[in-house]
């Protein structure tokens, strides 16, 4: 584990580099677009039950985008505008990749309104080498700070994205769908040196939702699922010739209490980001 002094020095170096070149190697949007926050729709007034995905373009093309619109037809950001908390200990979850599909969809964190698009590499659309077996997406209003080292997970820095969710319910959700979930566990994946949390959760409308409330319940009612999730994310890059991902925290899933701590900390990081206490680089705050 990195010492506090080493982590601090590394963080300072990385902060300087990120501030100078941008947090991601992406096309830079005009400053007015990247940093403008809208006042038309606010978290306090947003009715999440009215949110609907709206697709533009054809699936599996470079132009394909899935935006989120409210009941009045106004476009909102699935990352910034959807409230994190859904009440009664539940959280909102934005579906990026439906279960049993392989197109690598993700929120475009550098585009206005942060729509969902298919990831690319060298101009080509990206696919997982095999289907993902669970609904996969993000927790809104969270951010894994790439300038902050986590001393509990090998001093790894955040991956500059919202926190990922692996939803284990039986229903196949749709791209852009907003679900209410309860966290059950957390996996500390380390991807090429970056910390990339995976929160294991279940949709409140799943038939087994009332039976699972913590990490031990997952093993009881979904036997083998936690191991399958860890192994899937550990190995999915191997077919492309890359090394396997690693996991911190003893290679084991942390319990619900720890997952809630991760969510709280990354929500605080997001709040600092949108308040511009931390440089946004190429990230869109619109």
Automatic annotation (TrEMBL):
GO terms for cellular component: cytoplasm. Belongs to the PPase family. It catalyses: diphosphate + H2O = 2 phosphate + H(+). The keyword Endoplasmic reticulum does not apply. One of its GO terms (biological process) is phosphate-containing compound metabolic process. Its EC number is 3.6.1.1. This is inorganic diphosphatase. The lineage of its organism: Eukaryota, Viridiplantae, Streptophyta, Embryophyta, Tracheophyta. SUPFAM superfamilies: Inorganic pyrophosphatase. The gene is gb09960. It comes from Eleusine coracana subsp. coracana. The keyword Protein biosynthesis does not apply. One of its GO terms (molecular function) is magnesium ion binding. Its cofactor is Mg(2+). PROSITE patterns: PPASE.
């Amino acid at each position: 584990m990195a010492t506090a002094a080493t982590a601090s020095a590394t963080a300072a170096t990385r902060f300087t580099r990120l501030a100078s070149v941008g947090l991601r190697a992406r096309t830079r949007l005009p400053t007015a677009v990247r940093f403008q926050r809208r006042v038309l729709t606010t978290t306090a007034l947003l009715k999440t039950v009215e949110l609907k995905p709206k697709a533009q373009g054809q699936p599996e093309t470079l132009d394909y985008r899935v935006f989120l619109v409210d009941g009045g037809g106004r476009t909102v950001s699935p990352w910034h505008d959807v409230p994190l908390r859904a009440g009664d200990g539940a959280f909102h979850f934005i579906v990026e990749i439906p279960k049993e599909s392989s197109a690598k969809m993700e929120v475009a964190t550098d585009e206005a309104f942060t729509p969902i698009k298919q990831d690319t590499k060298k101009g080509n659309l990206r696919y997982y080498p095999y289907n993902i077996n669970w609904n996969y997406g993000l927790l809104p209003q969270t951010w894994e700070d790439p300038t902050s080292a986590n001393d509990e997970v090998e001093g790894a820095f955040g991956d500059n994205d919202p926190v990922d969710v692996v939803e284990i319910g039986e229903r196949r959700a749709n791209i852009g769908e907003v679900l209410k979930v309860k966290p059950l566990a957390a996996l500390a994946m380390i991807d090429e040196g970056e910390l990339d949390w995976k929160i294991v959760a279940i949709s409140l409308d799943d038939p087994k939702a009332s039976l699972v409330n913590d990490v031990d319940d997952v093993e009881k009612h979904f036997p083998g699922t936690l191991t399958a999730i860890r192994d899937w994310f550990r190995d999915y890059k191997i077919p492309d010739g890359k090394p396997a991902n690693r996991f911190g925290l003893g290679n084991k899933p942390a319990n619900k209490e720890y997952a809630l701590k991760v969510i709280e900390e990354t929500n605080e990081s997001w709040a600092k980001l949108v308040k511009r206490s931390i440089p946004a680089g190429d990230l869109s705050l619109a």
